[in-house]
Amino acid sequence: MLASLVLFGLAMRYFKKKGDEQTEDHFIRGVQIAEPRDLARQLKKAKKQSSFAMDNLHVFKQNFEVQHILLDGTTGAGKSVALRKLLRWVRARGDKAIIYDKGCTFVSKFYNPNTDVILNAFDERSAYWDIWCDAKEASDFENMAAALIPMHGDGDPFWVQSARTIFTSTGYRMVDESNRTTERLLELMLTSELESLNEYLKGTESASLVSDKIQKTAISIKSVLAAYIKSLRFLEGLDQKDDQGNLVRRRFSIRDWVKDDEQKGFLFLSSNAKQHASQRPLISMWLSIASTAILEQQENPDRRIWVIMDEAPSLHKLPELGETISEVRKFGGCYAIGIQSYAPAQEGLRHQPGPGDVRLAQHPASSSAPPPTRWLRFPPRTWASRKSTFPRKITVTVPMPCVTGSRWVTIPKPALRSRRLKSCSWTISSAGCGYPASFPSPNST
């Protein structure tokens, strides 16, 4: 009897132990939250510890920098302090760094006139830069225009794309001119009459956008263009010369500096609170040029080029930033970005056709073969409610030349559900050109 009780007690103890083990959490794989000191010990034991220490704690693995760093925290959380500690380590290693410095805090602590360069139109220490320092081909001007003139929200892309096209054509046309200056560039695009600008751009893809035949459209495009490229006027005077005719400031190319492996200093793209809004387009463009230049180099896993961006959302949206970060590792690029809040991207770079889209087939008179399909989306509130009555014919006037890029026109869902959709005839007119339209059925995707 006693032996049976002992065996029963041992059995209960065994099954209780097994039950407790099965109910406990067991780490299989993935990410664990660890104390900094425990993490430092594990990295040291595995011999994968980086030489960079944060408050004397070596919590980073070797080559962590090429996987990039995101610092996310509210005001006062210590993002800038952490970046300053990182920059001291970068300086000690002799690495090259491009630093976006809103507020000039990094310039005041790290600037060395013997090795570093400042680009700031309001700083006497700034180097001399104009758009031709980093642009020789049409594609270079197109990349500049994409960062200088950003696409915002869900607005009509026609105006921004047209403004970019005019900037690209004008800048590229001036490449071979001996008297090219920023002042002349701005005078042509902003203050000259349409006839003068059209004559200058004759033979380019922008000529039709500044034609006096579409004067109202051309003026609207120039207003979009002026809103962003006016920041270039702050570059006037950087080409100042002394009594001997020599430049007071050295001419500086971001692309050449990035691609020169002998350069080991810092490039500061700085602004203070007073002038930041004026310089935002410029700094966004400079960062875009630097990012593109990193990707233009030969692959080198030992190279290190840092891009430090504190308060990154205060800049224009950089269209190529996501793609650059995903590809730059093999070229030695290292990004450290500080933000106050994180929100995922809500839309892609391109809109994909959906059931609310109208497909327009454009047939220019000069071409016998049908061109690629264009997609248009109607302006919001074209039809305000489900009770709206469909007319038998609807004419939509599109303020653009026939040869211009695509526009979007959206039909609200109530319209798609209408049985009268198939029986309606539609005419899309653009500067006298007709666009035959084809529509999906109400249930089509």
Please describe what this structure looks like.
The protein contains 13 helices and 12 strands. With 445 residues, it is α/β, with parallel strands linked by helices. The chain folds into 4 domains: 37-67, no CATH class; 68-129 and 242-339, P-loop containing nucleotide triphosphate hydrolases (Rossmann fold); 131-235, Magnesium chelatase subunit I, C-Terminal domain (Helicase, Ruva Protein, domain 3, Orthogonal Bundle); 358-438, no CATH class. The strands form 3 sheets. The chain has a 6-stranded parallel beta sheet with strand order 1-6-5-2-4-3, sandwiched between helices. A 3-stranded antiparallel beta sheet has the order 8-7-12, with no helix packed on it. A hairpin with a 2-residue loop joins β10 (425-430) and β11. The longest helix has 22 residues, at 2-23. The model is unreliable at 344-445 (pLDDT under 50).
Number of helices: 13
The CATH H-level superfamily of the largest domain is P-loop containing nucleotide triphosphate hydrolases
The sequence of SSEs as H and E is HHEHEHEHHHHHHEHEHEEEEHEEE
Biggest sheet layout: 6 strands, parallel
Return the CATH class of the largest domain: Alpha Beta
Helix content: 25-40%
Question: How much of the residues is beta strand, in percent?
Answer: 5-15%
Distance between the first and last residues' Cα: 79 Å
Descriptive key words:
4 domains; 6-stranded parallel beta sheet; disordered C terminus; 34% helix; alpha/beta; Helicase, Ruva Protein, domain 3; 445 residues; 12% strand
